[in-house]
Design a protein that fits this description.
By secondary structure, the protein is mostly helical. It has 7 helices and no strands.
């Protein structure tokens, strides 16, 4: 009985030990598997992090290339717009600086000055669209000064043109005698009559002659202008309408000042446009493409 009990206990103990060994082995295997799993997860996280870094670097590079292409395209568009506006200003300035050469804008096809003002307005509209606002404001100032100079030039044009025509007619002509009926002699006679009319206007203002004497001088000047046959009705009215020349001198001074202001405005615009184009790629009004949101 004691021997049987001893064998039974030994069998139970052996079974328990075997079971404990199996359990311990299973726990060891499970621990090793968990360690391997953690390593695999860490390696996968590292691969994902590297892939995310590579993706974002490629995305940033693509965005940078896109911005560079866009900014270059925008720079070329702006450069063309600015150049066209400056060219239109130069053409307008060329015309208004010589009012004696302006044509009569009295119907029919548009004259060169009308076409020039249209070009300034059209090119200025493009500059307003392309910006930036600081440059658009300078362009607006230049446009307004150009149109102001144009108005002054148009007011001067009839008188200046008439004097140019009379001066050209007297160049190289005989001084008098047998050729008194020649165009040159008639132009000189018109010049003399206009000088006497100006003197009569001065003496009338000073109270040295009466209205009748002035009216007679004005009629002689009108007859001389008609006799030479070189002037348009507008040029004739300009010479006879202000015989004292006070208005003409004032208009000439205003015209000169308008030209000076136009030149200054053009210079300011060109300097600002050059500075903007020289810093292309860093313009504050060129927005960058939107970035993709980061994944959590």
């Amino acid at each position: 009985m004691d021997l049987m009990d001893s064998d039974s206990v030994s069998a139970v103990v052996g079974a328990v030990c075997t079971l404990l060994g199996v359990v311990l082995g299973a726990l060891g295997t499970l621990g090793a598997a968990r360690v391997q799993l953690r390593g695999a997860i860490a390696q996968a996280d590292a691969v994902l992090a590297q892939a995310d870094t590579t993706y974002r670097a490629a995305l940033d590079q693509a965005h940078a290339a896109q911005r560079a292409v866009h900014e270059q395209w925008r720079r070329e568009i702006r450069r063309d717009a600015y150049a066209a506006f400056v060219a239109a200003l130069d053409r307008l300035e060329e015309l208004v600086s010589r009012p004696e050469l302006l044509e009569d804008d009295s119907g029919g096809e548009p004259d060169p000055l009308t076409l020039a003002t249209r070009a300034v307005r059209a090119t200025h509209a493009v500059v307003e669209l392309e910006g930036p606002e600081s440059l658009a404001l300078l362009a607006h100032t230049a446009r307004e000064r150009g149109l102001t100079a144009c108005d002054h030039a148009r007011r001067l044009a009839p008188r200046a043109g008439a004097l140019r025509v009379l001066g050209a007619a007297t160049d190289g002509g005989p001084a008098g005698g047998a050729e008194e009926s020649s165009p040159a002699a008639l132009a000189r006679a018109a010049h003399r009559a206009l000088t006497r009319l100006r003197e009569a206007a001065f003496h009338l203002d000073a109270g040295r002659v009466d209205q009748a004497a002035f009216d007679a001088a004005r009629q002689r000047a009108a007859d001389s202008l008609d006799a030479c046959g070189l002037l348009t009705p507008g040029q004739r009215r300009a010479l006879l309408g202000d015989p004292s020349w006070e208005g003409a001198l004032r208009a000439g001074s205003e015209h000169a000042d308008a030209l000076t202001r136009l030149t200054a405005a053009r210079t300011d615009f060109v300097a600002a446009a050059r500075a903007l184009l020289d810093t292309a790629g860093t313009a504050p009004d060129a927005p960058a493409p939107p970035r993709q949101p980061r994944r959590p």
